[in-house]
Design brief:
By secondary structure, the protein is α/β, with parallel strands linked by helices. The chain is 42% helix and 18% strand. It has eleven helices and eight strands. The chain is globular, with a radius of gyration of 17 Å.
Length: 278
């Protein structure tokens, strides 16, 4: 059976926003866009695999009464540019994140979902000028994929077989059940997933090359960091989130009962609002 919490969250998902769109230029000249809304201290937000800024409308509504929200599209998503995909490196995504953070202002807060949280950890270790971070299930220590996984993914994308590429990602990388994948395919969000499919190479590169919890880097990240996971998520990701929080000098771990890997924006909004304002 499809995860009931996941189904409820996708059922409540709103796509789109009327927020103003602004642009920064990243280190390699690629424009990175963000939706800016609300008032108060700045919070930068970013997503994970098959996420774009439009998918976080509910969380923006939760945060914007308290903060000025900079909800950005990672490269290749939304209105952001892509550069040359064949020259992609994780360093470019770290530079994109830093460009948005500097636009928001040093000392801003940062919320990152899924693989965006992996980027945030590595960016913070390099001195990203944020005051606090909140991360939802950064998928460190994910189960290994087969040796030919990336070749198969790239071959599907080269032939524009996007639906098969998304299914491959969810089946072999995220390890969603067949029932959950079938549910996604019947949901209005499926078209958005197909549009974002070419960016899967970026997230899978991050997930493979940066998979271990970077224990050697964590002592250098002194900012208060909240690591959140869902109680119904797989044990491997729960263990990774616990290890991440324990390794951070000012890390805090929070497990949200009954939640899964699909972010519950309605419950997470108050949680990170409290953390950022405390």
């Amino acid at each position: 059976m499809v995860d009931s919490t996941m189904g409820a969250e996708l059922g409540n998902l709103r796509l789109g926003s009327t927020a103003a769109v602004e642009t920064v230029i990243s280190a390699d000249g690629v424009p990175i866009t963000y939706q800016k809304s609300g008032s108060g201290p700045p919070v930068v937000m970013t997503g994970g695999g098959l996420n774009n800024a439009a998918m976080f409308a509910e969380l923006v509504d939760q945060l914007s009464p308290h903060f000025t929200v900079y909800n950005y599209d990672r490269r290749g998503r939304g209105h952001s540019g892509d550069g040359n995909p064949d020259e992609f490196t994780v360093d470019l995504e770290l530079a994109d994140m830093e460009a948005v953070v500097r636009a928001a202002g040093e000392g801003c807060y940062l919320f990152a979902n899924c693989t965006g949280g992996m980027l945030a950890v590595h960016a913070a270790a390099r001195g990203l000028p944020v005051a606090k971070m909140a991360l939802y299930e950064p998928p460190f220590e994910s189960p290994p994929v087969s040796d030919d996984y990336m070749d198969r993914l790239q071959a599907l994308l080269a032939e524009d077989r996007r639906a098969e590429a998304v299914e491959l990602f969810y089946r072999e990388s995220v390890r969603f059940s067949e029932e959950t994948i079938s549910y996604f395919k019947q949901h209005p969000i499926w078209d958005a997933f197909l549009a974002l499919a070419p960016t899967l190479v970026y997230d899978c590169t991050l997930g493979i090359d940066y998979s271990p919890v970077p224990v050697d880097l964590l002592p250098s990240i002194e900012i208060p960091t909240l690591v959140i996971d869902g109680g119904d998520s797989p044990q491997w990701i729960l263990t990774a989130c616990e290890s991440l929080a324990e390794g951070l000098p000012n890390g805090t771990h929070h497990r949200e009962p009954g939640e899964s890997h699909v972010l519950n924006q309605k419950t997470t909004g108050p949680l990170i609002t409290s953390f950022f304002t405390s």
